[in-house]
Amino acid sequence: MLALSANGVLPKADYAIFADTGWEPRAVYDHLDRLEREIAAPAGIPVLRVSSGNIRQDALDPAHRFASMPLYILNQDGKQGMTRRQCTGEYKIKPIKRQVRGLLGYPYPQRIPRDVFVEQWVGISTDEFHRAKDADVRYMRNRHPLIDLGWSRSDCLRYLTSVGFADTPKSSCLGCPFHGNAQWRHIRDTSPDEWQDVVAFDAAIRAGNARANASGNPLLGEAFLHRSRVPLSQAPIDHVTAAEWAARQDALPDTDPEEWERGVVDGCSPWACRGEADAALTRDDVGLAS
Ligand code: SF4
User: Does this model's pTM top 0.85?
Assistant: First the structure.
């Protein structure tokens, strides 16, 4: 959408906002720098990078209140579960709303008049139109320009290729538990230091997040980044044949081969994530309009 706006296909945006969890892959930060330098700056569109902190550091810091990631849990009795997903709300939605309020001139807790709002573009393509939603506050009105253009994901990829951005990486935390095996393998096979980083994080959260442990609320079980609930360094992330997959079905009841390979389809987008309803945010947390 930024390129479309810079190139005059869409109207010129006033700002582009990137919510930085502090733990994106290096390729994403490099891509963002390039996008800013080659597309946004020449078009006069400021890219605002907003943040609520570093999700990796916060998870491991006993002194920091942590908005939990959706970790896979193996309970002591062998039952499986997941921790609530609060990270999208804390690390993406909250800093974006704070920035938008600032741009409008009504920082929290000021009341925003009824007729003051931004038009916010959300980059959802036609193949995922079911994720397009209205904003949950009056001071933001969502629009979905890619859907208005009738563009699918492959239309977007074709356009990105035509403007020299064929290798646009997917944005998400390096160690997001929603990764599928393809993403885990990509990290392992292309970026050894980032693989070490996620393996070390996976080991460090085995007993849950640091603050919960320090405050006497330890996890009664073990937490994992990979959905097999096996330490990431040993998890079955290699590509399997159909026969191997069929042989695994007994051991892995929760089996959708496509999802194991590609990850959770509705991954992490601030405005279209499947965990939005779980984002345990209070009005004070995010400064919602009253
Ligand atoms: S990418 Fe994953 S870990 Fe990061 S904020 Fe989104 S859901 Fe949470």
Answer: yes
